[in-house]
User: What shape does this take?
Amino acid sequence: MKHANIAFFVPHLGCPHRCSFCDQRRISGAEEPPDPRQVEQQCREALAGLQGREAEIAFFGGSFTAIPRGQMTALLAAAFPFVRDGLCLGIRLSTRPDALDEEICRILKAYGVTTVELGVQSMDDGILAQNGRGHDSASVRRGVALLRRYGFSVGLQIMPGLYGDTRETIWSTARQTAQLTPDFVRIYPTVVIEGTKLAELYRRGLYRPLGLEEAVALCAELLCFFEEERQIPVIRLGLHPSETLEKDLVAGPYHPAFRELAEGRIFFQGMQRQLQKAGVPPGRVEFAVNPREISKAAGQRRSNLQKLEKQGWQVRLTPKEGLPPRTVRLIDRQSNRQHGEEETGPCI
Ligand code: SF4
Assistant: This one.
């Protein structure tokens, strides 16, 4: 069954931190938090239009449990009746790893919260400090353990490419994040937004964000690592496209279809690797692909097929029901056999 989020953005007005990537003025200026009546009304309206789809109520914004306690409980109290009456599956929210304790967990549990996402960003204490996060990696471990004790589903968000990040720190963060066995992760490659510390550092030549190609290649590897190797779903890769983001973007690897680019890259590498491994000479070649993944395999605007053509192979993609996700199968019609392993997923 299709799933929908009834989402509310709850900015942390007056937040005492200054994370390098966050523009406090924009948050506190343009975005007003919803009030409980709006939550109730929007939930009612959204549920009426869902036509049988399952829904969760989501409080996003990053610091939900750090906002004033009365405001937090008022918002939860407005959402809770929809969960209690079985109209919604539950409530999900995102918060800082250090904004959790036993009392907060008890409150969340009592109000029907089912999923808590933590903004981890990095598991390297030096990177966390350099980016003004105001918490360390130990607080992430503590936060996850606490949430598990209370039976919440746990999501972790990471931001590769922060100020000071290297390939080593990014991979160390990915491995440590996976070790915490979250139910899912979100990966947001760091971008530079107007009004942030990163924008200052960028303009002074002290910070270089990941390039788009670089970030796509890295995130393709991270996607394979989490989903294929560790069986942890990546439910978001790349920032949500929005007019505000595009207006305020100074630099960095933003693309409205970032995940599509990363998945396309995985297919490109899979096809190229199979052709090279099987020693297929230049010419016409054919790959079987799951019908739902033909466009991913072809790449954005058929870029994968064009790149392979430049290397001498004219690739034809044939839909084949039943192939597992991210799998391409090289077909040799002449010898009526398949090269190499029968089904070699691109993520190897
Ligand atoms: S991202 Fe950092 S600075 Fe921005 S609201 Fe959250 S904790 Fe505060």
In short: The CA atoms of residues 6 and 159 lie 25 Å apart. Residues 3-256 form a domain with the TIM Barrel fold (CATH 3.20.20.70). Residues 12, 15, 17-19, 22, 24, 27, 62-63, 96 surround iron/sulfur cluster (CB under 6 Å).
